[in-house]
Each structure stands twice: as C-alpha cells, then as structure tokens.
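User: Could you write out the 3D structure of this protein bound to NAP? I've included everything you need below.
Assistant: Certainly. Input first, then the structure.
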Amino acid sequence: MTRTFAVIGDPIDHSLSPALHNASFAFLGLDCTYIAYRIPKGELDAGVADLKKIGIAGFNVTIPHKVDMMRLLDEADEVCKTVGATNTVVNMDGYLKGYNTDVDGFLEPIKNRKIDCRGADVLVVGAGGAARAIVAGFAKEKVHKITIANRTPQNAERLAKFAKQLGIESDQVDIARAGDIASSFKFIVNATSVGLKGMGLPISTKNITRDSVVYDIVYMPVETPLIQQAKEQRATIIYGWEMLLAQAMKSFEIWIGRPAPYEAMKLTLLGRF
Ligand code: NAP
C-alpha cells in the first residue's frame, strides 16, 4: 500500500520538501509519496483531522503551525518538549507522535566540520521560531554564552530567558551594535529572514574575522549577502541549505527507519536553487 506523507503550513507552495522527499522515495524505490497541504492559520484542528482520515503516514509542520501542533500530539519527544514546537509527526493509526528535527538539523553541519561548540560564545541574530531551535541546539552542546540580537528587543529578551532556563548564560545586544562586537564570538548565526532573495545584511560585517564561524540559515539564495561578505573576510561559513537538508534527512529517517539518501536529496535541493 502506498504510504503518503505531507508538509502542512501556509504559505506552502514554495516548499522544497515535496521535491526532496519524493526524490528520496524514487531513489530508494519506496512506494511512498509526499504532498504539500495548505492549512491556513486557525484551521489546524480540522486540517489534521482530515489528514488522519486519509491515513497520512506522517507529516512535516511549518509556519504558522509548529507551536500550535504540539496541542494535537498524543506524544512528544524530549527535544519537541524543550523547544515547544514540532516539525515532524508520525501517525500510528491515529496516534500522533511529534519530533523536532530542526535542533539536530541545525547542529549537523557544525558537527560535520568537526567544530567544537563546547564553551563557545555565540551571537544569534533573530528571535523567532528558528532562533528558538538554534538556542536549544547550542544549549545541548553546552556553549558558554548566547547573546541575542533582534529587531524587537522584547523578543530577544524572551529568547534569552529561554536560554537561561536551559542552563546557559545569555544576554542581549542592540542589533545596531551587534556587528561592532562580532569579533568576540566564535559563532555568528543569522536566524532572521534578512538576506532572503539576496536583500540586506542582518548586522554590520566589518568585525567578522577569519576566526568567526558564520552560519546563515537563510537558504534562498545560497550565497546570501552575509555569506558573501563573511567569505571575503575569510570566516568559516555554513550555508542555510545544509540545515534544510539535514532536518529533512532526519524526518525521513524517523518515518522510514533507514538512512536518507544524502546525494539524491542534495542534488534535488541544489537543483531547485
Ligand atoms: P519567524 O519566527 O517569523 O522569525 C523571523 C525573525 O526575523 C524575527 O527575529 C524577526 O524579528 C526577524 N526579522 C524579520 N524581518 C526583519 C527585518 N526586516 N529586519 C530585522 N529582523 C527581521 O521566522 P523563522 O521561522 O524563525 O525563520 C527565520 C528565517 O530562517 C526564514 O528566512 C526561514 O526561511 C529561515 N529558516 C531556515 C531553515 C533552514 O533549514 N535553513 C529553517 C527554519 C527557518 P522581530 O522579532 O523583530 O519580528
């Protein structure tokens, strides 16, 4: 019997997940398919009930439902509970179990490069949903301190509080000043949407050095202005597509129970850019 998977969110037309997962299914000859299913804000309960009705095997969750979906789970894994958001759900005959693969998906490219997080000072620019998963990831890796810079200071404050709850020292800095002190951080992560479509820099880059690890989670375009600038200043760079790919691979592995085909997924993803 064909197993059907989905990604739910709104907007959803732009999602790269159907291409990624369908490529993996085809590559491994699995009788599975993956669709994009638009569920507008406020219609999550009815939308998930419909997915159960068609016997969905599992689904990814994206904006604006990652937090709200927690309410509809029968069980949530530890990472999910820590972050308070889910991006991957398994349906076992109507029993829904949630996971969060954003946290380990974020860490994976750092680990691939064998870069040590332990004891590091980190600057996270942004304080939205993705930044929360990133803070949970850095906390898991026992960094020394997480500094948050965000356009809306109240959101930065909330995220710093979350980091402290996870046992990590945390403070915030004015986003206009964050670039001035960039050289005091080992990691500089852009978790805002600035840089999308090649527009703008989230912070000033003049003090990024060759000792910095600059990680931009924006993946469209591949070479964001921040990545371009950091490359010129000889920093170690990590691309947003690497996180996107890693979190998708982890979802695949939860659903299918075998390793995801890295090359097939990577080629599909980069082909889409
Ligand atoms: P979100 O919850 O809506 O948060 C957006 C963040 O960007 C907030 O901190 C917001 O600041 C900031 N922001 C938005 N416009 C800004 C502007 N013009 N100037 C300064 N700051 C601005 O979104 P999210 O889910 O965290 O996603 C953030 C970005 O990460 C998106 O581009 C998304 O595509 C990308 N992402 C990538 C991956 C991946 O796998 N690579 C995964 C998840 C997300 P305020 O608090 O002031 O509004």
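The pocket of NAP is lined by residues 63, 126-131, 150-152, 155, 191-194, 196, 217-219, 240, 243-244, 247 (CB under 6 Å).
User: Perfect, thank you.
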